[in-house]
């Protein structure tokens, strides 16, 4: 839902902010006060075209910003998303989503699934035939879900097989060149007889041999210090303690510990002495190590960052060699798999098609009933479903489009062909009423929905707006008292002249002010009679 809408420098709007709510938000007010400009601003924020003539006279730019609360949106932080669009007289656009600059097209794509505007504009998901199949399937979900899931599982595997079939090696010469290269690579790696971890081990050996002199010198120093200094000193200390051990148990204990140190030090000395004997200057060995490391480095540069990756590359290469050498059989096998999948998908898709046909009739009936309530008795809603065999898509073989005819004797036409803004709004309202539970677009905006209607039709519009607002945030501009009386949150749009400029003002109405506004809309004047009538309307609609 939109929690706050901020508009600056659009038409007669100077700078206003509107705090909106979940449920039914009704905008009423004076003619020419800026109600439609507010809807225009929402359209601009949805990435629609903008005329620079809409920028407030005397200003260089206009600005629209909204805070959206979308708790299930992965791009939001704690559910809040800030959308803004700034437009200059020179045509420059600056669009942002949560502070990140985006193009107008990216903004439009983002907002497509968030807001539907019905009225003078075409920013509506229902105007896009690409959404109709998904809406029909959502309406038919319980009947169609199992078959769709089975179909899509096969379709995913089918795409993999088709992708594998598209892979080819050109003519025979190109295939042979590829085969020769792969065999050379596999042989080069095999001949190297690599072992995982040997490069690290060789590097350690290289370091050790490179520092042979340093190692030998320090081993000799350590050996001399143990033999000539430490062992002689400890031996003298042992003899001294042996002379007095009988006088105190602590002396005897220290003597025992010192003897243990003596024996351990002797063992350590022998180890160091053996290390000294093992140290030798191996020029030939270091050359071997360097040659081996150079070979491993060369293979890493070609085939992977580690010996493990090089060996994995070899396995992949050998698999590709096998595939090329058996390419004809491989392709025949893939084609057979694809054919079997196509047959299975066709059978399931036809079952899905039959279900869609049945559910479409139910959807048509429900929407046509809603149209009758809206005093559009001559209008007829139809769902066109065409099965296109062989044209496999993730959704099956069907193309779906919603059609409408508004007058007797006319052919059914796509929704986008409907010209009248008010008529279109009522058609959309009928469709949205039926699809309210499955339509995932959270924000619905209705402008001109009351054009040319009154009485029972107006009451029906009010009732349907109220019903839809249980599942969506609804923003509605109206001139009818019966619709205004339905609003959960009512706003008055007025205009004031300040100096030599007209400015739009927005006020959230209290319950008492809402009653007065309903009375004004109903009769043009506020009297005790019109107030009582407004209270009755409000009571009935509440």
Q: Topology of this protein?
A:
Elements (H helix, E strand, L loop, with lengths): L1 E9 L2 E7 L4 E6 L5 H11 L15 E9 L10 E9 L4 E5 L2 E3 L1 H9 L2 E4 L13 H8 L1 H26 L5 H21 L5 H13 L1 H31 L6 H30 L4 H21 L3 H19 L1 H47 L6 E8 L10 E8 L7 E2 L6 H15 L7 E4 L8 H14 L4 E5 L3 H4 L4 E10 L2 E8 L2 H13 L4 H14 L1
Parallel strand pairs: 3-13, 3-14, 8-12, 12-13
Antiparallel strand pairs: 1-2, 1-4, 4-5, 5-6, 6-7, 9-10, 10-11, 14-15
Helix pairs in contact: 3-4, 4-11, 5-10, 6-9, 7-8, 9-10, 11-12, 12-13, 15-16
Q: Which terms summarize this structure?
A:
alpha/beta, 55% helix, elongated
Overall description:
This protein is an alpha/beta fold and 542 residues long. The protein has a domain at 172-325. Helices cover 55% and strands 18% of the residues. It is built from 16 helices and 15 strands. Helix 7 packs antiparallel against helix 8.
Summarize the structure.
The chain is α/β, with parallel strands linked by helices and 542 residues long.
Q: Stretches where pLDDT falls below 50 for ≥5 residues?
A: none
Distance between the termini: 22 Å
Give the mean pLDDT: 84
Number of strands: 15
Query: What coarse outline follows from CA principal-axis ratios?
Result: elongated
Question: What is the rounded Rg?
Answer: 41 Å
Report the β-strand fraction as a percent range. Answer: 15-25%
Question: Structural class, please?
Answer: alpha/beta
Looking across the biggest beta sheet, what order are the strands in? 2-1-4-5-6-7
Share of helix, binned: 40-55%
Main sheet overview: 6 strands, antiparallel
Q: Determine the number of helices (DSSP H or I, runs of at least 4 residues).
A: 16
């Amino acid at each position: 839902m939109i929690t706050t809408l901020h508009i600056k420098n659009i038409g007669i709007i100077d700078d206003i902010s509107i705090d909106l709510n979940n449920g039914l938000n009704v905008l009423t007010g004076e003619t020419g006060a800026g109600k439609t400009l507010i809807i225009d601003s929402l359209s601009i924020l949805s990435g629609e075209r903008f005329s620079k003539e809409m920028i407030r006279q005397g200003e260089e730019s206009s600005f629209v910003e909204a805070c959206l609360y979308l708790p299930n949106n992965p791009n939001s932080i704690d559910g809040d998303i800030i959308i803004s669009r700034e437009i200059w007289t020179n045509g420059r656009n600056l669009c942002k989503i949560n502070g990140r600059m985006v193009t107008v097209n990216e903004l439009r794509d983002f907002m497509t699934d968030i807001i539907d505007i019905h009225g003078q504009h075409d920013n509506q998901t229902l105007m896009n035939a690409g959404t109709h199949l998904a809406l029909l399937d959502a309406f038919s979900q319980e009947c169609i879900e199992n078959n769709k899931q089975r179909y899509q599982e096969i379709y995913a595997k089918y795409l993999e097989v088709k992708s594998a079939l598209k892979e080819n090696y050109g003519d025979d010469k190109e295939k042979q060149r590829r085969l020769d290269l792969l065999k050379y690579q596999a042989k080069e790696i095999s001949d190297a007889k690599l072992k995982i971890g040997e490069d690290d081990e060789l590097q350690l050996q290289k370091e050790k041999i490179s520092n042979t002199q340093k190692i030998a010198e320090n081993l000799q120093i350590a050996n001399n210090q143990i033999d000539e200094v430490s062992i002689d000193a400890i031996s003298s200390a042992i003899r001294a303690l042996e002379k007095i051990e009988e006088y105190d148990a602590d002396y005897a204990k220290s003597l025992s510990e010192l003897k243990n140190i003596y024996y351990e030090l002797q063992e350590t000395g022998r180890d160091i002495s053996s290390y000294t004997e093992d140290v030798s200057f191996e020029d030939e060995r270091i050359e071997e190590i360097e040659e081996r490391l150079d070979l491993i480095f060369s293979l890493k540069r070609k085939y992977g960052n580690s010996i493990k990756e090089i060996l994995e590359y070899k396995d992949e290469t050998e698999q590709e060699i096998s595939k090329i050498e058996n390419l004809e059989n491989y392709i025949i096998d893939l084609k057979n798999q694809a054919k079997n999948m196509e047959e299975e998908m066709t059978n399931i898709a036809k079952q899905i098609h039959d279900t869609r046909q049945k559910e479409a009739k139910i959807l048509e009936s429900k929407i046509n009933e809603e149209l009758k309530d809206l005093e559009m008795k001559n209008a007829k809603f139809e769902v066109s479903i065409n099965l296109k065999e062989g044209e496999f898509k993730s959704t099956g073989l069907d193309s779906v489009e919603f059609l409408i005819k508004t007058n007797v004797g006319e052919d059914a036409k796509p929704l986008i062909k409907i010209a009248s803004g008010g008529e279109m709004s009522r058609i959309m309202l009928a469709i949205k009423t039926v699809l309210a539970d499955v339509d995932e677009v959270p924000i619905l905006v209705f402008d001109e929905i009351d054009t040319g209607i009154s009485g029972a039709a107006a009451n029906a519009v009010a009732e349907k707006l109220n019903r839809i607002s249980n599942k969506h945030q609804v923003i509605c501009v109206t001139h009818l008292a019966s619709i205004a009386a339905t609003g959960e949150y009512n706003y008055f749009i007025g205009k004031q002249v300040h100096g030599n400029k007209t400015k739009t003002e927005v006020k959230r109405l209290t319950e008492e002010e809402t009653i007065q506004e309903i009375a004004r809309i109903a009769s043009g004047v506020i009297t005790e009679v019109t107030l009582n009538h407004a209270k009755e309307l409000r009571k009935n609609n509440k």
